[in-house]
Predict the structure.
Amino acid sequence: MGTVINLRQARKRKQRADKAAQAAENRARFGRTKAERASQAKEDDQQSAVLKGAFRELSQDNVE
């Protein structure tokens, strides 16, 4: 005869495993450390400053 299992416990165990797998996938897709986010923000600020410095404003004489 087979082993008797509690179906409610088996269902909950499977749900926990599925949830853990989903969490691991989300960490791989979206997870970044605070240092990585800060580094990216710093790079974005530097790039923005470079672009802002290279921007040419139009004078009122050239506007028709």
